[in-house]
């Protein structure tokens, strides 16, 4: 920011190396003890002037800092000689006393002369003799020159003082610029005339300018990623979007074309976003789309909807937060994100835990933690809402793990019908097909699946290879 962008008496804020009279006398009158206090008060004055609109109209030469007022912090001798910076800026001399003193009287009597110091001999007798340097003509010459200061040392001290002063001014400039940047003052002052609107910061999105009110009456519209400002003629208002949602629900029930329905829902969500519509209808749109995505196994779209729903629920908008809280717990179990699961468990209230969907998700978590696969697959068969659709995402992984545990614990064989019943298959034929895919369909004798006995000893090796494939989890889940 150029120094000319400030009022003339405030240019020290922008250009500390060429300070104005205001800053010069303010900092000249302060000391190391109250320098921080002076700096803080200057910042406060500038912010207050900005807030009440008097930044460019205030006569800064008449401003008196409380931190430099008489009776404030004790100043150094140089600062006291300098006087108030306001007086110096007015060009006046140091203040005279406010009231005349008493009339001069006769001079007081001269005090008695001080007793002369004892001669060196007396001092030497009172204390032990200290080692002395031999007196030579050279030392006598140095002693004669001792009272005189070395010009080089005096110049070095002057340069050091100037460097310290320059460093302090740079520090003040950095502090002020940082403070101004945090309140967006730096991009708003400029050289605008008094009363003019401040210039907008180009790095900050003006949401009011980007917000539109749609006028389109088309119920169906393909989703296109925005590359420019939205056109109100192509954006559907809230009333039209309500009709669109009802139409999409009917089409889904009739046609089951997920690619088309997903595209239409993304278009509806975009129209809601550009119009900044956040109400219960917005919650309904995201909940409906999330349920359809779960039903089709599209975890990518589900994650986007779940993220938005968490923010909408935080606004207090009505919806089904308990249902989607259960989905979130199950999704974290799918991704094996134990840290997030633990954090979420700490946030649950007794009312949350009492919700049927949430209680089901917590029971699934407990079954997995304890390795109770019998309970896990029973919960899978009795899942509420769309909980089973999230369980489908890691059901194969848990079945392989359960088969491996079963193969290691039951020897030498196990009835396939028992395996099918325990691991949630509809029958022995479905269990046999799954084992064939894993290369673990090994039996003790040739028999139909319903009567076959699974050879658990030989099945351990192929099951271990299959379990290794599930060590990594695809947390994106986006459909191609």
From TrEMBL:
GO cellular component terms listed in the entry, alphabetical order: nucleus
InterPro entries in the record: SAC3/GANP/THP3, SAC3/GANP/THP3_conserved
Gene3D superfamilies recorded: 1.25.40.990
Biased composition (Low complexity): 122-137
Location of the SAC3/GANP/THP3 conserved domain: 227-439
Pfam families xrefs: SAC3_GANP
Listed Pro residues bias regions: 97-121
Feature: compositional bias, Basic and acidic residues: 146-155
Region ranges (Disordered): 87-155
Protein name: SAC3/GANP/THP3 conserved domain-containing protein
Organism: Malassezia obtusa
